[in-house]
Write a structure and sequence with these properties.
The chain is mainly alpha-helical. The chain has two helices and no strands. It has a single domain, classed as Gcn5-related N-acetyltransferase (GNAT) (Aminopeptidase).
Length: 62
């Protein structure tokens, strides 16, 4: 179990620094609302740009 040890934070901080060093000015991520990942991303300064909704219908033979 690697949670709460700062591994993800360190990896994302490195990715952000590397992205800046090669001239990128935007990073985006996709995650689930209310997830641990969402909390991590917002703690690093990411902001919600938009919300997507997925609709599905389970089909069953009759």
């Amino acid at each position: 179990e690697h949670r709460r040890k700062g591994v993800a934070t360190a990896l994302l901080q490195k990715a952000i620094a590397d992205s800046l060093s090669i001239g990128n000015n935007l990073l985006y991520l996709i995650t689930t609302k209310g997830s641990d990942a969402e909390r991590l991303y917002t703690s690093l300064g990411f902001q919600v740009a938009y919300t997507r909704h997925r609709y599905e219908l389970q089909l069953q033979k009759q």
